[in-house]
Please model this.
Amino acid sequence: MRIVSPGGEALLACRRVSDNSIHVVGARPNFMKAAPVIRALERRGIEPILVHTGQHYDARLSDIFFEQLQLPRPHHYLGVGSGSHAEQTAALLLALEKLFLEVRPERVVVYGDVNSTLAAAVTASKLEIPIAHVEAGLRSFDRSMPEEINRVVTDSLSNLHFVTSPEAIGNLAREGVSVSSIHFVGNPMIDTLLAFQERFEADRIREELGIEGPYGVVTLHRPSNVDDAEAAARVVECLRRASKRVTLIAPLHPRGRARLEAAGISQVAQVVEPLGYLDFMSLVSGASVVLTDSGGIQEETSVLGIPCLTLRENTERPITLSQGTNRLVGTDPDAVDEAMHDLGSLQGRGVPPLWDGRAGERIAQVLADEISDAGSRR
Ligand code: UD1
Model:
């Protein structure tokens, strides 16, 4: 395992490096992680091939993130769209195999734990293309989460593992991953947060949404919370308890919105459309509390110092519990009540190691070293 320190840019910045690595993104949480890596590669004169699978296709889940995060237009858009896991994964495998056979990339870089990540890793490995996984080694140890399966499979197939947090190293080592493939680089999603933080405008978004007084932000989209009526009723009861203390604003992902509305979410929270990156982070930055079942938001709130109540039984991001502002409350209304009374205790103990805005640089450095090693072998 190596802890990578940024540097070496000067060497690479003065010449363009030919690279036909493919970076695959597909769903909203991928975009914040890929943007700093792509930018750091570009600073080194490397222009990787960017592929958008089209897993997320709504402008509010996709286009707006490309614009705001200044991601380059994808070289390839595969348009796979939605479906059951089998349908979506099958469409991804077919489209990615065709593309990889055409391009014959030297490496495929995948991000996070969505179905696009899994499919790109499986396709690349069958074609014997080396894989780099950004955000490797996170584990919830809960195989009922589709993302956990995606994480385990992707890591087992990857040749380079970029980890955001020290416990990920142990998780990978226990699964037999060679420690020489693991690079502790920090958190690229936090690079994005720190790069854009100056543009978070809590007052503007508060005014635009007509929010008065202290407020909490709600996001819910996990299948375990929104895919059946009983689960949706439970989380809405949790929100009802929280709403006794603060106004709740819920920018809802299209998945599960109908079920949450049927369970009465609109009576306890102001439901709004999904927000772009800057509006969402502006809203979070002014909040008294966030109630969520997202993974990434547990990390973002930890860095911003905003108390986060996670409506899940487990987290693949335990560092947000030990060092950050996160607390697991499950979907127990009493636990939500208790936590809402005690938000002051969720202060956090500082930002986790290497969440310093330079993860993209560290990842780019390792990838650039690999490219120049491959070049000198040719
Ligand atoms: C996916 C990821 C999840 C991530 C989430 C962030 C997987 C297994 N899950 O979940 O880890 O936290 O993205 O948003 O990859 N839909 C739209 N418009 C879109 C995309 C989806 O309306 O642009 C609706 C469709 O009804 C679709 C449903 O959302 O069937 C689910 O989309 P999907 O991409 O399968 O998973 P997410 O729930 O978005």
User: Anything to note?
Assistant: The radius of gyration is 20 Å. Residues 5-15 have pLDDT under 50 and may be disordered. Residues 2-187+355-377 form a domain with the Rossmann fold fold (CATH 3.40.50.2000). Residues 27-29, 55-58, 61, 82, 88, 113-115, 146-147, 221, 253-255 surround uridine-diphosphate-N-acetylglucosamine (CB under 6 Å).
